[in-house]
């Protein structure tokens, strides 16, 4: 009986040792899994940071409302302005507006505004010719037209 009791204790110790080893192996496996997950998470964060950095490099400020927009945007959704440059020179538009009046606006694609300035300057010129304001009114209108041509946003 003593021998059976000793054998029983032996197997109990063996099972305890095996269970302990299995727990240690399980704990080691969990630790490796946590480490692998941590490395994957760090790699994902690094990749997202690089994507964010690349995305932020593509952002510029809207020249009209100063909101952040993508570099390749054509029309900004908040202020509804065309962002991309029309390719028309502001200086040339100014000189065309100064010398030829509404042609500066027509050069930038603003045909209706050019005709409105032409009609207004014609009417004002006719009114001014009846009064001494001719020398101030007409040049003022042409200069105003030139300034409008510079500040007008080009259409596509």
Characteristics of this structure?
single chain, 156 residues, mainly alpha, two-stranded antiparallel sheet, 70% helix, rod-shaped
Q: How do you describe this structure in short?
A:
The protein is mostly helical and 156 residues long. It has helices at residues 2-57, 90-100, 103-107, 111-129, 134-151, and strands at residues 59-61, 68-70.
Describe the structure.
With 156 residues, the chain is mainly alpha-helical. The protein has 2 domains: 2-57; 88-151, no CATH class. The protein is 70% helix and 4% strand. It contains 5 helices and 2 strands; from the N terminus they run αββαααα. Strand 1 and strand 2 form a beta hairpin. Helix 4 runs antiparallel to helix 5.
Distance between the termini: 104 Å
Q: What's the shape?
A: rod-shaped
- Radius of gyration, in Å, reads 40 Å
SSE ordering: HEEHHHH
Order of neighbouring strands in the sheet with most strands: 1-2
Helix percentage = 55-70%
How much is the average pLDDT? 73
Proportion of strand residues: under 5%
DSSP strand tally: 2
DSSP helical segment count: 5
Reported for the largest beta sheet, the result is: 2 strands, antiparallel
Number of separate structural domains: 2
Low-confidence region ranges: none
Structural class: mainly alpha
């Amino acid at each position: 009986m003593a021998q059976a009791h000793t054998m029983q204790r032996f197997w109990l110790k063996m099972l305890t040792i095996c269970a302990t080893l299995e727990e240690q192996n399980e704990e080691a496996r969990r630790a490796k899994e946590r480490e692998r997950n941590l490395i994957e998470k760090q790699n994902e964060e690094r990749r997202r940071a690089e994507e964010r950095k690349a995305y932020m490099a593509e952002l510029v400020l809207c020249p009209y409302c100063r909101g952040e927009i993508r570099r390749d945007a054509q029309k900004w959704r908040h202020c509804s302005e065309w962002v991309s440059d029309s390719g028309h020179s502001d200086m040339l538009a100014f000189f065309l507006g100064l010398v030829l009046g509404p042609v500066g606006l027509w050069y930038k694609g603003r045909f209706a505004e050019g005709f409105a300035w032409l009609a207004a300057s014609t009417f004002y010129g006719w009114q001014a010719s009846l009064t001494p304001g001719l020398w101030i009114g007409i040049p003022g209108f042409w200069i105003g037209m030139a300034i409008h041509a510079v500040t007008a946003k080009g259409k596509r």
